[in-house]
Design brief:
- The chain has 290 residues and is an all-alpha fold.
- It is built from 7 helices and no strands.
Length: 290
């Protein structure tokens, strides 16, 4: 049997209308009040992080430029022991500072992503486009600064080892002159062991080290090995072998002096060709992100 549809009462209609109006009002309030407030809050937090990132990047750029200016004239191996220690500490601090500044860049980028991802926006917040571009420049500057400060850390760590080995060579030579063959052989062996462990760091491309310095490391190893052979032959009264080892040692010493001079003389050219373009890129990216 056909039953006519029940008529909806006016009370139900009014209630439905009220629910609709409340929903529209809630959406309107969200769009007009809550959404702008949320965007403004994110913009403020993003702006604070970007300020810290800019300051940190500028400070890192200054530190990196100063550090490599110190290493440029004669190379890291030509510094005094005290200067090496100071510059190594600076390189490590700069690397940490760059990491910290980069964390501020990443935080700013995260806030931008949150603001851009808020629903019911007809367009992206106005601060995002310029700040995103600035953050990208700062990120590039800091990433490159980390590379440079890490390279300086590697170089100066190697330089400290080489400085200690150079001092040990002086002690070894004194033992040779005193015909203290046992002590000379022992010192030469210690030097050779350490130098072998430094050959890999000397050839590490991340250190941005002139290959001429790696040749100096090899030359010093040659001196240590020759001195050890000379000492052992002399201690055993093997005259012929000692004479041959003595000639080899003299040639190795000449090679050591020649490679050191070549590396020092080429330090400025290596800096200009290899390091300076990277420093220039850091300066450009820092300026673009300011």
């Amino acid at each position: 049997m056909f039953r006519p549809a029940r008529r909806v009462s006016w009370g139900t209609r009014i209630f439905a209308l009220l629910v609709f109006l409340v929903a529209v009002g809630a959406i309107g309030a969200f769009l007009e009040v809550l959404l702008p407030q949320q965007v403004a809050k994110l913009a403020e937090m993003e702006g604070n992080e970007l300020v810290l990132a800019r300051k940190g990047t500028a400070d890192v750029n200054t530190a990196v430029a100063g550090l490599w200016a110190e290493l440029s004239p004669k190379g890291s191996m030509g510094l005094t022991a005290a200067r090496m220690s100071e510059d190594l500490a600076l390189a490590k601090r700069t690397e940490r500072s760059a990491d910290e500044a980069l964390s501020h860049v990443q935080a700013a980028q995260a806030y931008m992503a949150q603001a851009d991802g808020l629903p019911f926006q007809f367009h992206a917040p106005t601060f995002i486009a310029p700040d995103r571009a600035a953050a990208q420049h700062l990120e590039k500057a800091l990433t490159t600064s980390i590379k440079l400060s890490h390279a300086a850390t590697l170089q100066l760590t190697l330089a400290e080892h080489m400085s200690q080995n150079s001092q040990s060579l002086v002690s070894m030579n004194a033992s040779l002159n005193a015909r203290d063959w046992t002590n000379a052989a022992r010192t030469a062996s210690t030097i050779a062991t350490d130098l072998k462990s430094q050959q890999s760091p000397a050839g590490d491309p991340e250190a941005l080290l002139d290959p001429l310095w790696a040749k100096w490391v090899d030359a010093m190893l040659g001196v240590a090995i020759s001195a050890q052979q000379y000492s052992l032959a002399s201690a055993a009264n093997q005259t012929q072998q000692a004479q041959q080892a003595g000639r080899t040692l003299a040639a190795a010493r000449d090679q050591l002096a020649a490679t050191f001079a070549a590396a020092q003389n080429g330090a400025a050219a290596w800096q200009a060709k290899t390091v300076q373009p990277i420093l220039d890129s850091v300066a450009r990216e820092t300026a673009s992100g300011a």
